[in-house]
Amino acid sequence: MRSRVLIFVLVVSLILSVVGLVFFASEGGFGERGHGMGAGVPQSFWLVLFVVPLVVLVGVLGYVLVFPELSEEKPEKEVSLVPTVEKGESALDAVLRVLSEDERKVIETLIGEGGTMLQKDIRWKTGFSRVKTHRILFRLAKRGIVSAEKYYNTNRIRLAEWLAKEKKNTS
């Protein structure tokens, strides 16, 4: 809706600006010369008729460039971020399907080691930096896929119980 209004304003501004420019530039179309369509109209009127729509045009274009989300169509149906389990698919498969490649690597490493590891060991097994490992585990913990508990100077990372049960059932 907003994008249609903005397009309408752009078109009207462009038309007014062109009309103002034509009358401003034509020899007999403005001023006190007495001949042409704009006889008796001061030259500054046609200049304003050219400049004001041009300023509006530039302003609207700038607004559209700064806020491009106005031109994007919104989806009719909201996409759910919760993975849905399709027929014959385990919950673990559904979770792995929606994870990023790095998150999937961490979960697969955890599964390979029995579902519990120290954070520093996950770092070494995956080859990620300390910060990247922390950020990935933070995102996974926030979503309830793993849990973390302090263990001396590191964290013990556990796969969520509902996934650990799923892992045992598929083994």
Can you tell me about this structure?
This protein is mostly helical and 171 residues long. It folds into two domains: 69 residues; 80 residues, Arc Repressor Mutant, subunit A. The chain contains seven helices and three strands, in the order ααααβααββα. The protein has a three-stranded antiparallel beta sheet. A hairpin with a 2-residue loop joins β2 and β3. α1 runs antiparallel to α2 and α5 packs across α6. The longest helix is centred in the first third of the chain and has 24 residues. The radius of gyration is 32 Å and the shape is rod-shaped. The two termini are 53 Å apart. The relative contact order is 0.09.
CATH architecture of the largest domain: Orthogonal Bundle
Fraction in beta strands: 5-15%
Helix content: 55-70%
Given the C-alpha coordinates, what overall shape results? Answer: rod-shaped
Can you say what the CATH homologous superfamily of the largest domain is? Winged helix-like DNA-binding domain superfamily/Winged helix DNA-binding domain
**Tally of helical segments:** 7
CATH topology group of the largest domain: Arc Repressor Mutant, subunit A
Key structural traits:
mainly alpha; 3-stranded antiparallel β-sheet; 7 helices; 2 domains; rod-shaped; 9% strand; 171 residues; Arc Repressor Mutant, subunit A
What's this, in brief?
By secondary structure, the protein is mostly helical. Helices cover 58% and strands 9% of the residues.
Reconstruct the topology from this structure.
Layout: H1 2-25, H2 43-66, H3 91-98, H4 101-112, E1 116-118, H5 119-126, H6 130-142, E2 146-151, E3 154-159, H7 161-170
Antiparallel strand pairs: 1-3, 2-3
